[in-house]
Inverse folding.
């Protein structure tokens, strides 16, 4: 069965992979006949009888039914917000044979909502990117207009401001370029020793920026399969953030440690690397938002920046089939947790 | 924040009119101030660089010391302009204060949204001094309405 899907356009864009199940009824039967992938008890009990057609959409194409290797289960009306954090590009739909028309209607409406969600997300991205690009351009033009029409006053102060705004603009375009790069990954995974990556960073990039950061390595970090350039960028961004958001007058201290945890829908095994800083932390209410592009929790002038660093970090974690989260009480610094799978899935 | 214009709210009760500005960009704060200084009428302007702090500041003012105008940058940390407007339009004490949003973004959707939420107008931040002067003259006209 061919199915025209409006979500086919999603995949050329910005970071959004869907993972939603429309399910019901004879799913249980289908599942059982699938054999190789037994669903969990809770999944089975959640499925009600009567459905008998399944459709898998991958990369916007309809495939005949096959069960996913691993998945997380969502009810149809779970807000799609939750879906975006799941890095599985899969939509599984089970349609009720007893009422096929209604099933297809439900599917159409789900796809419509998905499309809307993704296009909203995209519009929001372009909206914010546009705003943040327009703002320095407007300032450059206002400042130079002032110099042209009122050349009196402290010229060097104005030129300095023009320089600052240009730097802001340049940081933003650099950030966008590196976010774009992480979306166009050629998967060249190799063994990466995180100890080496971090000590090289400490010796080179961080020193070159004049950021004095004290790193406390609590234990040896693992060797992971990864894309070296991206893992390096991940730690550069995180350590630069730690320095940028340090408390006034304090030295920036980051404690780095690692352990192994089970997480995710399949309770897969992950290396967990944590970076605990002693900075200003963030309001816990903002925990969900801080990895979104262009989000700035602090005043633009007090903490200049493009607001892209953490969204790049999230994309890098996702490229490695991993996760990134941040925890803060709002005062005593924050801890970033990076989860990277012990074994990458094919 | 510049000290010349950023004075304690009690100054507002001594005759000059208070304008409260929600703006986290120092350059924009200064440009706003320069344009205000050039006006015949004198205003006291207080800048707050965070939406939440702006509401706290308003709450701390006595009834007779409330601003004659609130100017909001759309994108502010803490709370953005539409969230602030939502809050202000539900509070009896603040309903009557004219609120003008100004932003880099000229999006019609934002404009409509802000006006629905009680903004008197929504302006795009100008990129030359002359338009800025006009914009500020226009905004302060709400102070006398």
């Amino acid at each position: 069965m061919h199915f025209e899907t409006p979500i086919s356009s999603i995949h050329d864009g910005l970071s959004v992979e869907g993972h939603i199940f429309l399910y019901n009824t004879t799913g249980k039967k289908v599942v059982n006949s699938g054999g190789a992938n037994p669903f969990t008890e809770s999944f089975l009990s959640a499925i009600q009888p009567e459905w008998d057609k399944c459709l898998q959409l991958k990369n916007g194409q309809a495939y005949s039914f096959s069960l996913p290797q691993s998945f997380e289960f969502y009810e149809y009306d779970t807000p799609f917000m939750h879906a975006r954090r799941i890095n599985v590009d899969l939509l599984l739909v089970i349609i009720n044979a007893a009422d096929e028309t209604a099933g297809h209607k439900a599917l159409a409406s789900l796809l419509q909502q998905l499309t809307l969600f993704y296009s909203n997300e995209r519009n929001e991205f372009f909206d914010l990117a546009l705003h943040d690009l327009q703002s320095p351009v407007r300032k450059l033009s206002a400042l130079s207009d002032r110099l042209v029409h009122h050349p009196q006053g402290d010229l060097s102060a104005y030129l300095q401001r023009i320089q600052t705004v240009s730097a802001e603009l340049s940081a933003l375009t650099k950030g966008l370029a590196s976010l774009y790069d992480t979306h166009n990954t050629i998967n060249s995974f190799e063994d990466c020793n995180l100890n080496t990556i971090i000590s090289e960073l400490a010796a080179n990039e961080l020193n070159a920026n004049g950021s004095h950061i004290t790193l406390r390595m609590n234990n040896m970090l693992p060797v992971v399969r990864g894309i070296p350039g991206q893992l390096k960028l991940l730690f550069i961004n995180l350590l630069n953030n730690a320095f940028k958001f340090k408390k006034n007058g304090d030295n920036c201290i980051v404690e780095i440690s690692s352990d192994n945890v089970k997480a995710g829908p399949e309770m897969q095994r992950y290396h967990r690397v944590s970076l605990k800083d002693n900075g200003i932390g963030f309001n816990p209410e903002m925990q969900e938002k801080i990895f979104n592009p262009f989000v700035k929790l602090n005043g633009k002038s007090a903490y200049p920046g493009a607001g892209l660093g953490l969204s790049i970090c999230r994309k890098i974690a996702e490229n490695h089939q991993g996760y990134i989260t941040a925890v803060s009480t709002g005062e005593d610094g924050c801890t970033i947790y990076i989860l990277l799978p012990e074994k990458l899935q094919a | 924040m510049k000290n010349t214009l950023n004075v304690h709210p009690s100054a507002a009760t001594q005759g000059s009119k208070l304008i409260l500005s929600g703006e986290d960009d120092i350059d924009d704060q200064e440009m706003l101030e320069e344009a205000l200084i050039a006006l015949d009428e004198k205003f006291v302007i207080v800048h707050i660089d965070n939406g939440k702090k702006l509401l706290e500041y308003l709450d701390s003012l006595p009834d007779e010391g409330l601003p004659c105008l609130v100017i909001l940058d759309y994108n502010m940390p803490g709370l953005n302009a539409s969230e602030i407007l939502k809050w202000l339009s539900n509070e009896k004490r603040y309903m009557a204060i004219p609120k003008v949003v100004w932003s880099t973004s000229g999006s019609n959707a934002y404009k409509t949204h802000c006006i629905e939420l009680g903004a008197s107008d929504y302006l795009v931040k100008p990129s030359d001094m002359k338009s800025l002067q006009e914009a500020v003259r226009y905004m302060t006209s709400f102070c006398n309405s």
